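Chain A, query sequence.
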Amino acid sequence: MREADRTWAGLRWPLAAIGLALAAVGNAAEKVQEERLGALPQHIVSYAFSRAVVSLAYVASKGSKFVVVVDGKPGPQYDMIMPGLLFSPDGKRLAYAAIKGGQQVVVLDGKPGPPCDIASPMMFSPDGKRFAYAAHRGFDHFRLVLDGQPGLEYGQFGGAWFGPDGKRVAYTARKGAKWLVVLEEQPGPEYGGIVEGSPVFSPDGKRLAYGAEKGDKRLVVVDGQPGPEYDGIEKGHPVFSANGARVAYVAKKGDKWLLVLDGRPGPEYDHIIEGGPKFHPDGVVEYLAVRDGVLYRVKHLP
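Chain A, predicted structure.
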């Protein structure tokens, strides 16, 4: 089999799926729609569909270079296209990382950004209007690039999160031997570490909370204000109410566990069952707890 035949045989199923609206293989009762995309490229490396909009992007080779083709329109040529074509949630925008001259660039909406050593990870806001990525310089320096504007330089990158409304972004970073949360490029207090599973935005995106390590103690910072210190904070906490007005988390005090609601500690138990607390629409906070071998259904009433 010739090389061209082998390439075509390997791409037969992916290309049959391109532009698919309704499809089922081997079922005559189903409708199959085909969209002609043009001549077969030299080689298709990878491809991606947007979910909200009928768009297709794929990586194709062109001589010794590579291009990303979006809805039939090729973009700039690069030495390499990194894996992971990223569509925005609304399907209207596309981002990817490429290599040119030994350095990486992030290409957003067909336009390359400034070069860096490593560009990862990339992320869109939930509404697709904002875009951010960590631009690394070596292994110990990075800047968060938000909407094309690089922020302050820090050491190790921890993670980044957009608020539910997409208006604010927070990320964790190491500064020297300490860690901090940066909200809209405003650095917060420095701690020994940030607890896994945080920071967390309130559902309305207006508030931010996270767990932090201070020596051998743990505490929760809400809206930049540190709370009381405990011996531990349950992973995955804190939790906001639906309207964002209240915040709760499970903390350890000695060998006991308790719920801290709006900064106030509740009764102590031997164990609080994973999966709580739960905020209800009427303002009640509920969880399961164990004391002296007895299971309790605990409610904090408003």
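The mean pLDDT is 87. The radius of gyration is 25 Å.
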